[in-house]
Amino acid sequence: MSSLRVVKVLNNNVIIAAHPDYGEVVVIGKGIGFNRKAQDQIPLQAVEKMFILKNEKEKEQYTQLVPQVDEKLIEVMNEVIFFISQHTKMSLNEHIHIALTDHIAFALKRFEQGITIHNPFLLETKELYPHEYELAEHVVRTVNEKMGVDLQEDEIGFVALHIRSATTNRHVSEVKEHSRLISDLVALIEDKLNMKIQRESLNYSRLISHLRFAIERIQRGEKVEEAHKLDELLKREYPEMYSLAWMLVKVMQQRLRKPVYDAETSYLTLHLQRLAQKNEDMGP
């Protein structure tokens, strides 16, 4: 029977073990280290809701993190990460165990000290990643209930970005930067058009989606069909919107450090014109 051989017990929920296929691994599971000692054998089938960290860097970082974190939180994080893994179609990057655990541990410390951190792109994150946001709501609710704290909605947005990072294999800083970029682009549009876009409106949702897909196309280097006649027409018919679209594209190009096809300016011009028209139709 395939089994793990205990090498070292870090606490009741984390051990270092020899795995029959992966060599030395970090194993995270509720009560997996309880009453265990080195050389004990644990049948692989006997451990439910177990995570195995195989990556050398992740093992090392997690081993360093464990002594700094409340053991009860390790158990809670194991539970919520298992919940996330059950409700996503993609496998999770191992780094979520370090990044999310470390983030929540720091959030709990801030809570104890009465320090609140505002999330400047909460609404953008909620709009961009609704599924991840829903999972993050469950995570924060569980942490609040099990750890006896009251982490607020700003924290849900941060957790959603960590979940998005783990399911797309992109560093959380990159995911966060996309939310920040979209937030900045929306602010620029509002400033230049002298309008306030209602965050719960369909117009806002459409704009966020358009910007998100544009950013993803740029990231992939995806060629967008050029339409020179349309481009010339838009430049002539909607000079203000075309100028703003060009400005937005330049911001994306600079922040993403990737070239942007001219057609993105045309598509964005059409979207901005529609947005401005809808706003005008609604009146003050």
From TrEMBL:
Record keywords: ATP-binding included?
A: no
Pfam families associated with the record: CAT_RBD, PRD
Protein origin, superkingdom: Bacteria
Residue intervals of the PRD domain: 68-173, 174-282
Q: Which UniProt keywords apply?
A: Repeat
Q: Which InterPro entries match?
A: BglG_antiterminators, CAT_RNA-bd_dom, CAT_RNA-bd_dom_sf, PRD, PRD_sf, Transcrpt_antitermin_CS
Q: Which family does it belong to?
A: Belongs to the transcriptional antiterminator BglG family. GlcT subfamily.
Under what name is this protein listed? Glucose PTS transporter transcription antiterminator GlcT
Source species: Effusibacillus consociatus
